[in-house]
């Protein structure tokens, strides 16, 4: 394993922000505090603005399972509990979708992951940064060709740091039902919260509740 610290500097260049319409990937996720890590699969529908996250993880020596469907156009997301055949429907902050470059993001750096010395030795990527609601901020790294999302870092004062690192992206989706809530979610009522979750805080919140046994 390798750990990299990226120092971003200002740069002026134009980069396409078009991302793949349907794709799936394996994705390790790390959140803090408290320390927790997970791995699983993310499915993304750029046309419908939907994300499905299925993952398992470990927090404070306890295992948890996450299954969430995020519907950004509807501004809601579902926490799906297959054991109980139940759902929780919650408001979703749609200002930031980490699978694509936001229109108000700032281009901070273009670089090679690996080496540019020879073909196949590295990947040309672009780094973007911006702000999140409630005094948060983020950095995202996307490939120059195809605008494939690779790594995301976010910080929220209320929940701390989160990181998503993706690999093995596959274009296309073999199961369109990934982006439809299960039938037992139909009667779920939208919960009222003071502040809508974004993708990062939603993943953190479910992990914490699972760990506590809520």
Automatic annotation (TrEMBL):
Q: Which InterPro entries match?
A: Ependymin
Q: Where is the signal peptide?
A: 1-18
Q: List the keywords (alphabetical).
A: Signal
Q: Which GO terms describe its molecular function?
A: calcium ion binding
Q: Which domain of life is it from?
A: Eukaryota
Cellular component per GO, a single term: lysosome
Pfam families (UniProt xref) = Ependymin
Q: Which GO terms describe its biological process?
A: cell-matrix adhesion
The record's similarity note reads: Belongs to the ependymin family.
| The name this protein goes by in its record | Ependymin
